[in-house]
Structures are given as C-alpha cells and as structure tokens.
Amino acid sequence: MKLKIKKEEILKGLQRIQGVVEKKNTMPILSNMLLTADSNGVEIVATDLEIGLRGRYSAEVEKPGSITISAKKMYEIVRELPAEDIEIKVEDGNWAKIVSGQSHFKLVALPKDEYPALPEVAEEGMIAIEGETLREMIKKTLYSVGENDARYVLNGLFVHMTQGKNGLNIRMVGTDGHRLSMIDRVIDAKHKEESMIIPKKAMLELRRILEEDSSKSELRIGFSKNHALFKRDGLVMVSKLIDGNYPNYLQVVPAKSTKKVVVSKDLFSHAVKRVSILSKEKTNAVKMQLEKDSLVLSTNNPEVGEASEELAVDYKGEAITIGFNSRYLMDVLSAMDRANIALELNDALSPCLITEEGDEHYRCVVMPMRV
Which of 95, 161, 248, 290 has the fewest CB atoms within 10 Å, i.e. is most exposed? Predict the structure, then answer.
C-alpha cells in the first residue's frame, strides 16, 4: 500500500474516531483503526464492537491495500506534523511508514484479517432528518441519560417514532431516575411506529459529528432489530441497540401543577451557580423558597458557610420550599436556549417540571431532595 493525503483530510478522519476506539485494551486490535486505500481514496474504520464508524477521504493512491494501526498514535503523529502532504506506505507487511517533510515514523501494524467487520444494516426504509434538528434533540436530552446505571436500559436515549397528520413525530427521552428530559419534533417523512434505545456513547459520537457541520445538511437514519444506522456525506456510523423495555417515563411528568413561576433563564442559572458554590459536595443541595413576588435560593453548609440570593418574580400563589441537586438544575438550564423558563410545582415532595417559554414540545423534570 502506498498513498499521499493532505494533513487536514486525514486529521479530520482521525479526530472522528478517537471517541470510538477501545481504550481499555481488552482486545488489542480494537485500539487500532483499519485503513484501506483504493481507487476512490482512503477509508478509515474504527469500532469497539458496540459502535462502528466508517468514513471516506480524498487521497492519491499509488498502490491499494489495507492495514490496521494504532488510532491514538496515528492521530498524535499527524496532529504534530507540518501542514504538508503526508505519505503512508506499508513495508514488510507489518510496518506502516509515515513521512511528511523531514519527519519519518514507523508504526507496527496488525493483520487486517483480524479486524472485526462492521454489522450490515439494510438501508431500506431509511428516513432523512435535518442535521440541526437531530443535533438539537440530542443536546437537549443526552445529559439526563444514566452513566453505567445497573438498570442498563437507562444508559441510552429512548427514541419513539409515530406517524401523525403533519409528518413523522420523533420523541427522544433520557432519564437516570433523578431527572428526565423529553423532546418532540415533527419531520417531513413517513415511517412505521417504532421505538428503540440507543447507547449514550453512540449518541455522544453522533452529536460530535453533527457539530462539525453548521449547515442544514441532512442525515439519513435507519434501524434493524439490533442496530441503528446513520449516514451522511461519505460517513457511516453503526451502533448496537440496548435490548430491554424502557420504563413508563410519562408517569413522572406532572400532568398539572398548582404553582407556576416564569423567570429569566440567565438570572436563575447564574443565581443557582453562585449559591451552589457553598453547597455540600456530596449532595450539591440548594433550597428554593417561592413566595409572593420572590424566589430565594439558599445553601447552608456548616463546614464552609452559607449563601442566599433573591430574585424578583411575578408570583401570587401559595408559598413553597423545595430542595434540588443544583447540578441537575444547571444541566437542564444549560440545554435550554430561550430567554425565559417556567418552573411548575405542586409540593415539596413532587417533581418539578421545567419548560422553555414558547416551546411546549420540550419538557424537563427534576426530582426534589430533602434539605
């Protein structure tokens, strides 16, 4: 194998796969990438057996071939090379030589035959969705997904598609049992009713890919019984689905609330951040007192001190005192884009519903805590 490729072209491909390659080294070859050169350019493949990413990049290929080499070391080398063409060639079967200017490197290669193939997912029935829409949906829900939760179904985003009069409704839900986020968006497509649970890591990598492109280009998505497929501009990502039944998330979303206050998102979020500085590290607890025309946030930590901040609000309802994990509140607020948010409450032991003013299709729930 022998080829020449521009630094920025191969660097783009190497950056994309860094989050995919296996770092625990349970199988040495999974820390490698598969590099294939043919008449159409260069293909870079990485997988951890749960997620697979394949991308095609422009290159001058003098001699076709395939090798697997360390994805991390290759990335570190290319990142430091001068902005010139990079030549890659295979010598003696087990060595990849990388040359750029006066820089020369040799990396050990493993046989390409040992590299696991990506699962095949039929493209029939794939639907097109605007990249920006999908990026927004992931951003607004992913923070709620569990992290190594024993209830393994909570370690993924729940996606439910239903056909409506105005198009295909896509709902994404994330929860870890302490908070929940749910967003609905309608796209111009037709599809059967279908639901699946996509692992958090896969959605994190997909969001990174979508953030590369600020344009409104489309992404095509499809599903088989065990896998999700995402395609755009010569880039293909395949992910295993999480097998299991997602909990009845709607039962924790308050159907109605007796107390509601609208507040500036920025004022509220800065106040939460300031007051939480003195909260206990283990609980991050912040107390919220809602009274006539006043919202007071406070913390009391005997080991460090105490803090409080009052916000003027338009509220005429019954007084309530309730506690929250400030980190959960900050995660919700960071995902919201609009100027004002609404807090809807019932009592000190009931979940709080947080919505953005002007977007009834995005709802977040935070469970209270004793303070």
Answer: 248
Residue ranges of E strands in 241-351: 259-264, 285-291, 294-301, 305-312, 320-325, 340-345
Q: Give the SS3 label for residue 150.
A: coil
Q: Are strands 235-240 and 259-264 parallel, antiparallel or unpaired?
A: unpaired
Name the residue with tokens 């040495």: 28
Q: List pLDDT tens digits, range 280-317.
A: 988 999 999 999 999 999 999 999 999 999 999 999 99
Alpha carbon of residue 323 to chain centroid: 28
Going along the chain from its start, the domains and CATH numbers come out as: 2-114 (3.10.150.10), 127-249 (3.10.150.10), 253-366 (3.10.150.10)
Residue 322 in tokens: 């309730």
What span, in angstroms and rounded, lies between the C-alpha atoms of 350 and 256?
Answer: 11
Q: With contact defined as beta carbons under 8 Å apart, do 154 and 146 qualify?
A: yes
Count CA within 13 A, CB hemisphere, residue 115. Answer: 23
pLDDT at position 274 is 97
**240 DSSP β-pair partners:** 227
The pTM of this model reads: 0.93
Write the burial class of residue 170 (CB in 10 Å: 0-12 exposed, 13-18 middle, 19+ buried). Answer: buried
Coil, strand, or helix at residue 122? coil
Q: How far is CA 53 from CA 17, 82, 360, 362, in A?
A: 7, 27, 35, 30
Helix (H/G/I), strand (E/B), else coil: 154: helix
3-state secondary structure at position 257: coil
Q: Using CB atoms within 10 Å of the CB of residue 101, give its burial: 0 to 12 exposed, 13 to 18 middle, 19+ buried.
A: exposed
Taking the C-alpha atoms of residue 64 and residue 146, their distance in angstroms, rounded to an integer, is 44
Strands laid side by side in the 359-366 sheet: 194-199, 156-164, 167-175, 179-187, 359-366, 352-356, 340-345, 259-264
* Mode of pairing for the β-strands spanning 194-199 and 218-223: unpaired
Helix (H), strand (E) counts: the chain: 6, 25
Residue 195 buriedness (CB in 10 A; 0-12 / 13-18 / 19+): middle
pLDDT, one tens digit per residue, over 27-79 is 889 999 999 999 999 999 999 999 999 999 999 999 999 999 999 999 999 99
